[in-house]
Predict the structure.
Amino acid sequence: MLHTLRLGQIQTGDRLQLPSVLMPLVTAGERGRDVRNEIESITRHFGFDTFFYAVSTYPRPDYEGLIYLYTTHAMEWVTRYDQRAYIEVDPRVTECWDRTAPLIWDQSTMRGRGAKIDAFLKDAMEHGVASGVLVPSRDSFGMRMLVNFNSNIPMPDERRKREIGAHLGDIMIFATYFHELFVKSVVARGLPPKSAGAPLSGRERSCLVLAARGLTSDAIAKELGISPRTVQFHFNSIRSKLLAANRQEAIAKAVEARQICL
């Protein structure tokens, strides 16, 4: 479901300013084709196995923030990450939340930070996510996005690290360009997130139940032992799954669908 992305004949910027590796993606976008093959080709060119993109939209007067995802990962891993609320312990996300510089990571740089983090890293590695590059950014509209290229290699050797460094500039340009394409072709057109209709995770249900009892984000964070910004991420995800404009509508829809009981 997440693997198809037709960009609807989108025009962006000056083609001459883009690296040659991105030109097939540009052409596919201009012609309105599914760009999966181009994304996979670019991922292999950079020396990685899988690609993941996420954007958290800026709240509007009529709609609070939503989460949009696009990935070449197997749906098994996407679902597992969601249902286990790995966003709370993923060290790539927590380390990049307040930065814009890219993060080059592997098992040696991430392990040893705690039992839950190590358990996540082990599970991720078993699903082909063992190292990679993450590019965080915030655009002019305040939307936060993450572009992540992943490899199944736990510990890249020095040659591979030099290759990653050589590609880093093009990876950052790609991240910005893909974000622009995605926002223009999906978010700006008001298309629903692909997660719409997916079941809520256990953590999301807990957040909704506590909100229904009148707790604020800060109080929910304290109750669950997580940060307020992680609570906000959960609610963005909840609204995306339920296609709800706000927390009150999300609570009502979750009750109607029997995903929570009050």
User: Anything to note?
Assistant: The CA atoms of residues 44 and 50 lie 8 Å apart. The domain at 15-187 is CATH 3.30.450.80 (Beta-Lactamase). The first strand starts at residue 50 and ends at 56. The mean pLDDT is 90.
